[in-house]
Design a protein that fits this description.
Helix content is about 35%, strand content about 30%. The strands form two sheets. Strands 2, 3, 4, 5, 6 and 9 form a six-stranded antiparallel sheet that branches. The protein is an alpha+beta fold and about 240 residues long. This is PPM-type phosphatase domain-containing protein.
Length: about 240
């Protein structure tokens, strides 16, 4: 598995509350993007704690789970408890939270865990497929037919998410299993990218540059305003022979 990743604070924000994490284990590859939220440095703390706690949970329990989808779900639920407890112990961190998009790749299977509006895509010769569902106010409006996807890009509440890690004692985690093949590209990104770059544009750039597209995608988002932190991970499945 070839992996390139980068996180950037963008052109407007004073700090970067995103956090990215990659891990190549003996029998798996783990990819995580997190987009933190909260005053002062609370969002930065939430995204880091959540990502590291998921990594540690999977590392410690990987061999104990028969069901890998359940492993992902339990890892994210555990991270939610850790972030929530941290926010209640420290008044300066009260209300902090983060999105989480997590892919655990084992052989020809991708196990997805997801909370929030960061995204995961698979790119191959067939095109680009979004494998996450945004947990956001505008996605709900799209789903019920109130607005179109193009209108959602300009909606004043487009950054309002309906589900996050750490903001409540309990969290509902979306999980999914995808088949992946040689040379498939897995993309994880925060909304700092997708606010400015369409899925069609992501596809065209990634199709040409493969995992090296990370840098061009971030530069493009910044050139169009860069009003948020931007994080991108691209992993390419290689022939294991």
């Amino acid at each position: 598995m070839r992996i390139k990743c980068k996180t950037d604070k963008g052109m407007v924000r004073e700090s970067n509350q995103d956090y990215i994490l990659t891990l190549k284990g003996k029998n798996y590859v783990l990819l995580i993007t997190a987009d933190g939220m909260g005053g002062h440095k609370a969002g930065e703390i939430a995204s880091k704690i959540a990502s590291i706690s998921i990594r540690d949970f999977i590392f410690k329990n990987f061999s104990l789970y028969i069901d890998t989808e359940e492993l992902i779900r339990d890892a994210i639920i555990s991270s939610n408890k850790i972030v929530f407890n941290k926010s209640t112990e420290d008044n300066s961190l009260n209300g902090m939270g983060t999105t989480i998009t997590c892919c655990l790749i084992k052989g020809d299977k991708l196990y997805l865990g997801h909370v929030g509006d960061s995204r995961a895509y698979i790119v191959n010769e067939k095109g680009i497929t979004k494998i996450t569902q945004d947990h956001s106010f505008v996605q709900e409006l799209i789903d019920n037919g109130s607005i179109t996807e193009n209108e959602a890009l300009r909606h004043p509440q487009r950054n309002l998410i309906t589900r996050a890690i750490g903001t409540d004692k309990h969290v509902v985690v979306d999980t999914k299993i995808e088949n992946i093949m040689e040379n498939d590209l897995i993309i994880l990104c925060t909304d700092g990218l997708t606010t400015y770059v369409s899925s069609e544009e992501i596809f065209e750039i990634v199709k040409e540059k493969k995992e090296d597209a990370v840098f061009e995608l971030i530069d493009l988002a910044n050139s169009r305003g860069g009003s948020d932190n931007i994080s991108v991970i691209i992993a390419r499945k290689e022939d294991e022979k």
